[in-house]
Write a structure and sequence with these properties.
By secondary structure, this protein is an alpha+beta fold. Helices cover 22% and strands 27% of the residues. Strands 11-14-13-12-15-16 form a 6-stranded antiparallel β-barrel. It has a 4-stranded mixed β-sheet with strand order 8-7-10-9, with no helix packed on it. α2 packs antiparallel against α3. The longest helix is centred in the first third of the chain and has 19 residues. It is globular.
Length: 322
């Protein structure tokens, strides 16, 4: 078991209760139990960048940052123990194509987690097994119950182990200041005030404290000026998405691709890709996507095969085109 975050909250995957249940499962299966302490690494390389990114106006996904680090550490541990690899409980599958390992979507599309795994290095992916990839969640629970495992009725895990009460509460506890600022429309006209741009998310409608003839949604968070930009829902639609930090495994510019822009959102067809001088990629979509948030991942698929990924950024950061 990997220990990532201290605390007593039983909603966390690293709680004392979770540790005890993992130990019980190992005992029931008759396998040795090992604990790998990555708390310091997690705090430095996952939590701290998450806080910085959120304050900078992005909406980062800490699981995307965490997965390659913890899986790499587990593979290293397997090597020390003389094991060929590790099995992980992610809902994903692996396929070998031309001698190279690729992630492919899980059979249960509702549980598919390949989106969260796009940044796992190829050499680590080659050492992973995904026994749940061909199963649905009810089947997994039935198998666990059939074998008397104490986690058969385990509740669904939350999005982030370190923020069980939500990102806003976590950031406040980390000392992020509630600096008042303006809520403005797209033309810069003040409409109201807020207590910190980091308290808002792209696409948010409720809790703005504004009134008007039509509902308003958060369109942008401007960290430099501490402004929250709002507008009508249609203004959330984007046909071009700017992406940085690309991991590219055969991402041809004129290929038939789909891109997934949020964890629980369906992938959307890509019309074409365009590279910029600064190393960004512009994904031009067949149809508009509503509410793509800087800091979230953009993950590319050819059919069920994951072939590249990156982090969404603002179009202003990628205006220099080839």
């Amino acid at each position: 078991m990997v220990r990532l975050w201290p605390g007593e909250d039983e909603r966390s995957c690293c709680s004392p209760g979770a540790l005890q249940r993992a130990r019980q499962v190992a005992a029931a299966m008759g396998v040795p139990f090992h604990t790998l302490d990555l708390e310091a690494d997690f705090a430095r390389h996952v939590v701290a960048p998450f806080v910085d990114s959120y304050v900078a106006g992005e909406t980062p996904n800490p699981c995307v940052t965490c997965n390659p680090r913890r899986l790499s550490a587990l593979v290293d541990m397997a090597t020390e123990l003389g094991l060929e690899g590790i099995a992980t409980g992610h809902y994903a599958r692996r396929r070998w194509i031309d001698g190279e390992p690729y992630l492919t979507r899980a059979q249960d599309r509702a549980k598919d987690q390949t989106y969260m795994l796009w940044s796992v290095p190829t050499d680590v992916l080659a050492r992973l097994e995904f026994p749940l990839g061909d199963l649905g969640k009810p089947e997994v629970r039935d198998l666990a119950a059939e074998h008397g495992l104490p986690v058969a009725d385990e509740p669904e895990s939350q999005e982030a182990c370190f923020a069980a009460d939500g990102y806003r509460e976590f950031l406040a506890r980390r000392g992020v200041a509630s600096r008042p600022g303006l809520i403005v429309d797209r033309d810069g006209t003040p409409l109201g005030t807020h207590g910190g741009q980091w308290r808002y998310t792209i696409g948010q409608r409720r809790g703005l404290g504004l009134s008007g003839p039509r509902p308003l949604y958060v369109l942008e968070r401007r960290a430099a000026s501490n402004e929250v930009v709002v507008g009508e829902r249609e203004a959330l639609d984007q046909r071009t998405i700017a992406i940085r930090v690309m991991s590219d495994r055969g991402l041809d510019l004129d290929d038939d691709l789909e891109v997934q822009l949020r964890y629980r959102s369906p992938a959307v067809p890509v019309l074409r890709l365009e590279r910029t001088h600064g190393g960004h990629v512009l994904a031009h979509l067949v149809a508009p996507f509503s509410g793509a948030a800087p800091g979230q991942s953009a993950v590319f698929y050819r059919g069920d095969v994951l072939i590249g990924g990156g982090v969404i950024t603002t179009l202003s950061a990628a205006v220099q085109r080839v």
